[in-house]
Amino acid sequence: MSETEKPVDRETLYNEVWTEPMVVVAPRYGLSDVGLAKICRSLAIPIPSRGYWAKVKAGRIMRRVPLPELKSSGSVPTGLVKLPMEQLTGREAASKTAARVRKDTASLSLPEDASAPHPLVLAASRRLRRRDGWPEDPPLRSAPKEVLHLSVTIGTLDRALAIADSLVKVLIKHGFAFEIDAENGLTLIKSLETGTTMAFSLTEYVPRAQHVLTPAEERAQKRYWNRSRLDSSISYPKIPQYDFRPTGILTIQVGRWPSRSWKDTPKTQLELRLGEVAGGIVKLAQETHAREQEEARRKEAHRRAVAQYEFLTKRRADEIRRFEQLEAEVSNWERAARLRAYADLVEQREKAQAPISGEVEAWLAWARAKADWLDPLVLVSDPILDAPEPKRPPGYW
Fold first, then answer.
1. Which of 1, 255, 263, 381 is deepest in the core (most CB within 10 A)?
2. CA-to-CA distance for 120 and 187, rounded, in angstroms?
3. pLDDT at 30
4. Within 10 A of 348 (CB to CB), how many other CB atoms are there?
């Protein structure tokens, strides 16, 4: 087992988290700083307080919180295994790439001239601007099996298209492609470098509330009750069950597992964070690729373990079958030897009393033939015992 595959003990993890910040230590185990902190708390490992490393950086001498001892003696394994060096290198490269993308697109904003949108955005614009074919509840326009997966109200459509256009162009520039999965109704972002695909969507938050009848709807309802007693063909007035309120709050969702999302906040809208979004998508693609590689490695390890188990099981079963066959052959050989010895004794007895009759000679020949049939060292067959079993005659009726 290599050094990176050995689970670290509690004392080692304690020394790591007090030597370097959580955000530096956590990626070594494929975790976030929050996830590593939870594991530390579960193992009663104290962690530096907020602001600890800022004070250390400022030159202050800080005191470590001592590691409390547990009831069990000796080193306590944490279950954490460090990632291989090549994976750590890949993650560091992904972080640097994402940082470069964020830096390159930090000042990215929506283009003032939207006369040349990307073809995918242009197709989405044409499809989602159609007047007919949209549900009333909720009033969202979306056609993910045909165009980019946008799900927004008509009042937010222009803004959503502009955000999508800028994001698509930036990601294409950094080695990504967008595809429409018509069968599953997904928009996929594909990394041309690794082949990793991630689902993409841009949606608007549209809350619903129980519908309150308007005066006109109350009057229509009363007319229905009054007239339906005399005319059963009158249909009930169309009254919605819920009211949906467009908010214009957009959310970009990328990936399934792992996934990331970015949404409008009261202080900052997505237009001002497109650099952060693009950099985050680049990093997420690398994390997804690393997870896919790890999953492939686990599947291959499982496949090999299953194949080894099946091989050993079959080998054991074959060995047991061969041994049982050997025991059966030895048993038959011993039985054949006893039959021959018995036939010899019968022959000696008969010779001592009188000349052997034809009947006794026939019996001796039959007995010795049966011994030869039982003996695995003699290749003979029995015309009666080796013949197929007689078939039962059909019923009389």
1. 255
2. 10
3. 75
4. 10
DSSP 29: G
Contact 220, 188 (CB under 8 A): no
Q: Are 259 and 253 in contact (CB under 8 A)?
A: yes
Residue type for position 159: R
Q: Kindly report the number of other CB atoms within 10 A of residue 55's CB atom.
A: 13
H or E element, residue 209 = strand 208-210
Query: Which region holds residue 69: left if phi is over 0, alpha if psi is between -120 and 50, else beta?
Result: beta
| Per-residue model confidence as pLDDT tens digits over 266-304 | 888 998 888 889 888 988 898 888 888 888 888 999 999
**pLDDT tier for residue 107 given thresholds of 50, 70 and 90:** very low
Contact 224, 234 (CB under 8 A): yes
Q: Helix or strand or coil: residue 376?
A: coil
Nearest to 178 by CA among 105, 121, 126: 121
Q: Read off the pLDDT of residues 311-357 as tens digits, 9 standing for 90 and up.
A: 999 999 999 999 999 999 999 999 999 999 999 999 999 888 888 88
Task: Give the Cβ contact number of residue 298 at 10 Å.
Answer: 10
Q: Which two structure tokens, joined as six digits, stand for 292?
A: 């896919």
Whether residue 138 is preceded by a cis peptide bond, meaning omega within 30 degrees of 0, is: yes
Contact in structure between 110 and 162 (CB atoms under 8 Å): yes
Q: Are strands 150-151 and 197-204 parallel, antiparallel or unpaired?
A: parallel
Tokens standing for residue 162:
């502009």
* Residue located via tokens 């690398």: 286
Q: 87: exposed, middle or buried (C-beta count within 10 Å: 0-12, 13-18, 19+)?
A: middle
Q: State the average pLDDT for the chain.
A: 85
DSSP string, 279-295: HHHHHHHHHHHHHHHHH
